[in-house]
Amino acid sequence: MPLSLHHIVIDTHDLPSLARFWAEVLNWRILSEREREVVIGPEETGPVGICFMPVTDRKVVKNRLHLDLTSAAEDREAEIERILALGARRMDVGQRGDESWTVLADPEGNEFCVVRPKTNLIT
């Protein structure tokens, strides 16, 4: 059987809070909640989820990997404002100002982008 993506794992200082933040951002649910692990996903049988694991140290450098989120073009700015209201903040990682994405960070400083929707598919 070939490999498939199961979870994206995010280390977190505040396990329940960060998991709930991302569940609200993505409109996902808490699928599993244990003392040292919280898993969120769109549904129990979803193909992939995000797993949050506790760490004692805080994030101090830019992510080497980040998530890109998208929405319908007409909802993009409202979605960015909704995510900011949930506790995200805008980040400057050297943008010029004409990018097709907005860089944000979650409450623990993990960068992610809200990108414009794709207008064409690569085949």
Q: What would you note in describing this structure?
A:
The protein is of the alpha/beta class and 123 residues long. It has two domains: 56 residues, 2,3-Dihydroxybiphenyl 1,2-Dioxygenase, domain 1 (Roll); 65 residues, Roll (2,3-Dihydroxybiphenyl 1,2-Dioxygenase, domain 1). The protein is 19% helix and 32% strand. It is built from two helices and eight strands, in the order βαββββαβββ. The protein has a four-stranded mixed beta sheet with strand order 1-4-3-2, covered by helices on one side. Strands 5-8-7-6 form a four-stranded mixed beta sheet, covered by helices on one side. The longest helix is centred in the first third of the chain and has 12 residues. The two termini are 24 Å apart. This is VOC family protein. It comes from Streptomyces adustus.
